[in-house]
Amino acid sequence: MHDPRMLRDQMPLLRDAVARRGAGEVLLPVLEQAEALDRDRRGLITSVEEKKAERNASSQEVARRRKAGEDAAGLIERGRAVGAAIAAEEARLAEVEAALQKLLLEIPNVPLPDVPAGGEERNVIVRTWGVPRDGGVRPHWEVMAALGMMDPERAAKISGSGFVVYRGRGSRLVRALLALFMDTHTAEHGYEEVWPPQLVTRQTMTGTGQLPKFEDDAYATRDDVFLIPTAEVPVTNLYRDEILDAAQLPMAFVAYSRCFRREAGSAGKDTRGILRTHEFDKVELVRYAAQDDSERQLEVLTRHAETLLERLEIPYRRKLLAAGDTGFSSAKTYDLEAWAPGVGAWLEVSSCSTFTDFQARRANIRYRPAAGEKPRFVHTLNGSGLAFPRTIACLLEHHQRPDGSVKVPAVLQPYLGTDRLA
Q: Quick check: is 299 catalytic?
């Protein structure tokens, strides 16, 4: 969420931001309406303050006249009228502030200056690693079926389409990846391990930007709590409404969770295998940073995710997303795409973003730069480290052998207890 002062001090920046995202037609009217509401809000605040000053002065004069034995009836009546006017304007002010708040929640973050304008056609490949394997290998769902790693028929029977049951070697591979990812991020990269709830409140979902914009994509319960779409949501909100010391920054958290997304698997896209499901596993990295350190922290976080792909010996590329392809809350995002030769595609396995102070303003997470200084909003960052389904697909396709088995990368062998899946 943006500081309302931007509506009067940095409106050209906001207009440029929505234009770079390709959303000007939809969002420019929202900005104009928000600007008008902010103008009304400031006018009402001024009017209320003036009337309160008038009422106070009148009350003092009434007291003086009574003490002097003078008539104060006219002033008393005027004071009542002013009080009623104050009450009416404060009620109107509350309505305007609520409407303004609602509009501010609809305005996306401002992309950083080095983010290209335009849609996905303007995305930029920043770097690549490894040599992509040519085709001629089986897609992961055929490998998993041959090795008894998943059971799609029974998954559909018990939960419907878009769900997965891992079995045998598949279940063990998921558990091995979880242990590898968590061990690497905690022991080597310095993250604190967190196991958060997978049900969160509406306020928590709003804090990270999932609500109100993406409410239709979320799984909600009758108690108005939501199944999380990613561990980013509860972990980013850990310090909501708190003030941190600058010495605590940067803070780094890693969390495993199940992730739940209603839109996944829609329109028949990627319905075979495990590329797009309503429920999946993911290890998430979350960082808090000081305002002048967030861009450096984005590089740190992204490298932590990339390290896992390199150790799994999976070729990948880092892509800087253009403004129109960047998420609602993000100011800058790198997608890490791993090569899946069986389906002949680059698959996103991690999305690493800095949100500047956008989420922190929603969640009211601040830090005090030094003793006695005014608190500032932290900058939040997150990225997948890594998402399991597509990582598994790429691993099974890239490491296939001619005999139908799959080579297990050296880093994963201690966790699986074998050097091959057969």
A: no
Q: Is the pLDDT of residue 246 over 60?
A: yes
Asked about 261 being catalytic, the answer comes back as yes
Which candidate in 20, 21, 133, 276 is catalytic?
Answer: 276
Q: For the whole prediction, is pTM greater than 0.90?
A: yes
Residue found under tokens 């050209």: 12
* 351, 362, 366, 384: the active-site residue: 351
Catalytic residue among 169, 362, 366, 390: 390
Dist CA 166 CA 172 (whole Å): 9
Say which of 261, 287, 317, 366 is annotated catalytic.
261
Cα separation, 148 vs 294, in Å, equals 44
Q: DSSP letter string over 81-108?
A: HHHHHHHHHHHHHHHHHHHHHHHHTTSP
- Whether the CB-CB separation of 232 and 284 falls below 8 Å is answered with yes
The one catalytic residue in 142, 215, 313, 348 is 348
Is-catalytic flag, 317? no
- Annotated catalytic residue 240: no
Give me the pLDDT at residue 399, please: 98
- Looking at residue 44, what is its pLDDT? 97
Q: What DSSP string runs through 344-374?
A: TEEEEEEEEEE-TTHHHHHHTEEEESSTTSP
159 is catalytic: no
C-alpha 162/C-alpha 22 separation (Å) is: 31
On whether the CB atoms of residues 179 and 239 are closer than 8 A, the answer is no
